[in-house]
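[step 3/7] inverse_fold.run input=structure_tokens len=252
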């Protein structure tokens, strides 16, 4: 893993960052991006072994990291994620609510109540609660929250209307919690377009991942990193309640 020269404007040395869904895809790239710039990182997802692999990559950079397995859709487990971070690093500077799922159902009629509830639980309800739990600790250090949402919330694909609605809810919660948590804690969202990650493998074959866009390609996970760093750093001190669209210029 490449060591990055520390730009003082984006030096996270001594800061503690939680990344949900940090074991793969965009979350892994974000976790490594913060670690490369000095942060201690908690890597969280449901699978402990997958988190441990990213922890090992971070430790190879000479940074501290910890795997805390957690199902973000289940509120009962979320306090342990906060408590575990505080026990290990003594502070929380950044919470990245990145974990997400986009399950497919044949139609709205074929969507079970369980699938609907799980989609909302992981993509919106859990992040809402985790942000609320992190808030007092973030407030002590002037920290910030970054929610990873989706341009699907602007143009719902017929295969994923519930996912789109949950990400839309997260856009609204970003603004609502920014109002509630400010001025001590800033809350922003990165509204992602199509990126090459495991989630893309689950897309239906006719999913329009190559919809007309200015960049004519899908994003690479590392291309989300600097936006996350910017939103977490003092360089964005007047930016809150903002939804940054990061989609290669997809035409909607
Ligand atoms: N890739 C895209 O094109 C795209 C576009 C728009 C938005 N997004 C959003 O970007 C975020 C990251 O997506 P990605 O593409 O990196 O997805 P991914 O490659 O499928 O990774 C998802 C991550 O979330 C974790 N996760 C899934 N369910 C979880 C749960 N219930 N509790 C805790 N962790 C859970 C996974 O680990 P475990 O399996 O170990 O739990 C994994 O670390 C998601 O919120 C997604 O909706 C992605």
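[step 3/7] decode complete -> sequence:
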């Amino acid at each position: 893993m490449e060591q990055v020269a520390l730009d003082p404007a984006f030096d996270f040395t001594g800061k503690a960052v939680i990344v949900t869904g940090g074991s793969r895809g965009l979350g892994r790239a974000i976790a490594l991006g913060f670690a490369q710039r000095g942060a201690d990182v908690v890597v969280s997802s449901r699978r402990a072994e997958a988190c441990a692999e990213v922890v090992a990559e971070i430790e190879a950079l000479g940074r501290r990291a910890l795997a805390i397995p957690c199902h973000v859709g289940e509120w009962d487990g979320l306090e342990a994620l906060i408590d575990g971070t505080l026990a290990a690093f003594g502070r929380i500077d950044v919470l990245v609510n990145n974990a997400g799922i986009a399950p497919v159902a044949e139609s709205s009629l074929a969507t079970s109540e369980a699938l609907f509830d799980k989609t909302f639980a992981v993509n919106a309800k859990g992040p809402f609660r985790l942000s609320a739990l992190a808030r007092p600790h973030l407030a002590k250090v002037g920290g910030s929250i970054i929610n990873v949402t989706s341009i699907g919330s602007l143009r719902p694909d017929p295969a994923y209307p519930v996912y789109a609605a949950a990400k839309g809810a997260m856009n609204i919660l970003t603004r609502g919690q920014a109002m509630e948590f400010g001025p001590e804690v800033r809350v922003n969202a990165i509204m992602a377009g199509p990126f090459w990650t495991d989630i893309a493998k689950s897309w239906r074959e006719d999913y329009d991942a190559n919809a007309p866009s200015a960049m004519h390609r899908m994003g690479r996970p590392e291309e989300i990193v600097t936006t996350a760093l910017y939103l977490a750093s003092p360089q964005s001190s007047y930016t809150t309640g903002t939804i940054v669209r990061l989609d290669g210029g997809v035409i909607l």
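[step 4/7] annotate
Residues 20-21, 23-27, 45-47, 50, 70-73, 98-102, 122, 148, 150, 192, 194-195, 197-200 surround NAP (CB under 6 Å).
Helices lie at 25-36, 48-59, 78-89, 113-141, 161-181, 198-201, 225-232.
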